[in-house]
Amino acid sequence: MNKDLREILITEDKIRETVGALAKRINADYAGKQLILMIILKGSAVFSTDLMRMLDMDIMIDFMQVSSYGAGSVSGELVIKKDCENDVNGKNVLIVEDIIDSGNTLASLRSLLEERGANVEICAFLSKPDRRETEVSAKYIGMEIPDEFVVGYGLDYAEMYRNLPYVGILKREVYEK
Ligand code: IMP
Ligand code: MG
Predict the structure, then answer these.
(1) Where are the domains of the chain?
(2) What residues contact residue 160 under an 8 Å CB cut-off, 6+ apart?
């Protein structure tokens, strides 16, 4: 285990099982349809590559990088750092995200893509329901986790730890120092 972690929350085996279960549901729901995976950088870079290789419908992938101001400030205002390349009007779009925390980012992103005419659903590997500020309906959630700061499997702290093959809880002293 990485020395900065307090414990491993989700093992590699559990990750495989979780992604497999998500893929099974998505394959059933989109059978015979076309789907654009809207991969949200950078956190879902790892999750999305595992997920897409388990999907068997016609897939296109695209990327966006976004952040949002909190609901407390300018409500859910979305900052687009990198926009997607596809015209999503009339398309099935599945937003692939690493984790839903406050929900602010995804709620705004979902609205934006719907305004562009897409038929949008959300697939998040993790969700922290206790942290929600903005309700966002995510059809596919891999696992719900407690309110702890986690890293690994794409998730970072200060851009580090994304490469860990498991998800772990970061020691408090790492981010409080
Ligand atoms: P929110 O749902 O708008 O609050 O923001 C979600 C984003 O915050 C995610 O895409 C992550 O980049 C980041 N995030 C939230 N919780 C964690 C965590 O526990 N570890 C790493 N990144 C996190
Ligand atoms: Mg992040």
Answers:
(1) 5-175
(2) 151
